[in-house]
Amino acid sequence: AVIAHSGKSLDGGLPALRKALENNGISDPLWHEVSKSHLAPKQVRRALEQGADLIFVWGGDGMVQRCVDVVAGTAATMAILPAGTANLFASNLGIPKHIDAAVEVGLNGARRKLDVGRLNGEMFAVMAGVGFDARVIRDATPGMKHALGRSAYVWAGAKNLSSKPFDAKVVVDGEEWYEGPASLVLFGNVGNAFAGVKAFADAQPDDGLLEFGVGSAHNALQWGRTLARSATGGIQKSRFVHLTKGRKAEVRLSRKVLYELDGGDREKRKTFRVAVQPSAVTVCVP
Length: 286
Description:
Layout: E1 2-5, H1 13-23, E2 31-34, H2 40-49, E3 54-59, H3 61-71, E4 77-82, H4 88-93, H5 99-108, E5 110-119, E6 122-124, E7 127-131, H6 132-139, H7 142-148, H8 151-159, E8 166-172, E9 175-182, E10 184-188, E11 210-215, H9 220-231, E12 241-246, E13 248-261, E14 264-285
Parallel strand pairs: 1-2, 1-3, 3-4, 4-14
Antiparallel strand pairs: 5-6, 5-14, 7-10, 7-13, 8-9, 8-13, 10-11, 11-12, 13-14
């Protein structure tokens, strides 16, 4: 089956995808297009009910997240066609951003069982975050991403460098880990975030653990120092960054704050519960 976000583009678009599948002997796949990623879960369920055991997902990280939310825990396998802006899930797994190569991975690549995270009832495959990154994702609008590409995230990030911090208490695997001011709380399944930032240096999406991070930088100078550390691979040495690993965490904030899952912004919340779902979804990889 193909579950495609019709507003996303890669190479020659969806006609080129049909041609690539035909060239590999697949002339009549189950085909479901949606105009928004939040409409994808219904179509994924339809495809599973129709017997699909390999589901190609055309879109960005938000589309992948919506599909993972349904496919995880089933016997179906996901193949990623990275047609979004950031495509962090695909890039972390080494999936090429070309239709023919990505189709080849989907049909003939290895199958890898990966963990996912579950945050407040929704699954994520890449990262989920509270505070700074959620505001960046909110402000990098679809129109801006269409015009500027990845630079939209850089612009949105600069806009939010001086946002007011909040107080956070983070409990990891039943033990209090962090309490204090924060501008960002991040939950990661993979290592690389947007704009080339390596948020978690040794993250593995199949180790049965999630990465937890708190950022306490709250002005341009502090963020500049933090990003400079990231660029040299030493973000863990920044005094504005706190990192650990675990299977679950509870976060309580001093006020309601925006959050996001895999590039999709959500409503403000004050409390968050996150846990790893080990080996929850099978994905095609090179």
